[in-house]
Every structure is written in structure tokens, then in C-alpha cells.
Specification:
It is built from 5 helices and 15 strands. It is an alpha+beta fold and about 290 residues long. Bound molecules: zinc ion.
Length: about 290
Amino acid sequence: MTAAPPTPDGGGFVPGAQRSGPPQPGDLALVVAGRRLLTGSEGFPRVAELPADTAWVPLGALAGVPAWGTDLTDLAGEDVDEEAYPGRWRSWRALAAELPTPLADLAGRALAVLTWRRTHRWCGACRAELADVPGEQSRRCPDCDLYVPLRFSAAVLVAITRPGPAGSPDELLLVRHADGPPELWALVAGYVEAGESLEAAARREVGEEVGLTLGAVSYFGSQPWALSGPGVLLAGFTATAADPAAEPVVDGRELTQARWFPLDALPAELPAAYSISRWLVDHVAARPAS
Ligand SMILES: [Zn+2]
């Protein structure tokens, strides 16, 4: 399986929380244990391959085939019964790298939904046990009526360019993250704060991490999961440096290095092909010179 380019329509995966009927033998089965998922010889197993008494949660549909999830984390942890659940357990990072877009989106949703269900069982206001709201990924407190929907985080990525020297191509700012692979050249990125627009987050993160002020900021696209884990909606932007002569200054905390690279001489150590970071870099590199 190879990674696919971005598919704005979701590539045939439609998230859902409706239970139109009981799971059918041919429906897709996403079995989660901690941060891992069970895979079979052809992607994810089918409901018929798993124990009949499995408790299933609706996740949506892939190309019209309903998908269901179940969480074995509390039941068995790392020691899942291999006869009842045959297949190979894969980490999120491995799945994100190998699965084509709609399957990676489905796997990300399964992990996000089942992790949320496991970690949001009690009312945060009055400690009563929350009850599922039928047809939604949300819960409600039977005592104080607190409504608890599944929430996710938003983060921004910014591909910043500036004109190169006369007769030379534009330059792209790439950075090395303190907590990432040390050789990887990536983009400035960060989480959106509550009360902040995506564009404002892009400007703030760039200012904080490399000390640059942005000129024009344009939306590029999004990816509904990050390599660091599902439950993060990544929004990508292209931007120009307001002052083409300004040099980046790393904060030394989140970033270890920041450098301008001519677009015809980008480093080999770039983000993986299936990540929106790489789609942004490739998009900028393919643009006609300004
Ligand atoms: Zn309550």
C-alpha cells in the first residue's frame, strides 16, 4: 500500500455515529488496544473474524461498508488473546505511514473515538457516570446535564518563503525540532490556542519559534491526524516573510535550528511523503519562481 495525496472529500470515508442496525459479518472491524490497532492480511479484519460477544461502537463507513470499533485496552492491555484476535498489532505511526488516506483517516478516527470513550467516563463537574447520547460521539451527565462532546486539537503548519538573491530561486524556511528526529528538516508548527483563529496561530507560532513576522498568509489544506497521534487536525499555510532580509532566531526550546534553503537545493531529510508537511514543501518547491 502506498500513501495517497490529499483527498478533500475524504476518499470514501464518512465518519458517523449512527447505529442503523447490528454489525454485519462483512463490516469493517477496528480493534484498539492502547495506541495500537489490529490488522489482518487485507487491511482491517471483518466483524465475522472476531468474537461474537464483542461490544461495537459505530465509527462511520468506508466506501459504503459500515465500520465498527472496539477497545480491548482495559480488558487485556498488552496481553490480548491471540486466538480470539488473530492478526498483527500495529502502532499508530506505522499505520499512518503505510495506509492510503481513507484507511489512515478511519484508523485515526477509531483511535480518537475509542480513546475518548475510555478517558471521558465521568462527569467533570459532579463526578456522576456519563451516559452515551444516541447517534453522536458525545455523552451527557444524567445528574447535572453537562454535555461532553468528543473534542480534538487543531494545529498549524507554515511554509514560509522569501525571494532569493537576484537570479536565484525563492528560499524556504526549514527548522529542526528539539523533540523530533534530529536530522529531519520540518516546518514551523504549533497548536492553536482557545480563542485564536488558525491564521493568528500561524503568525504567533512563527513569531515565537523563529522570531519572524509574516506578510501574506494563505490556507493550503488540512490533514485530520498528525504523526504524533490521532485527534489533531493539522491546517497547513503558505506565507511570505514580511522582511526578506530578516534571519530566523530559534527559541532554543522547541527548535534547535532554522535555515533558509533555496527551493532548488532543499535537504534530503524532509518530512514523510504521506504528511501534510511534505505536501506543503512539495507544493512550494513546484511553484513558478516569483
Ligand atoms: Zn454532572
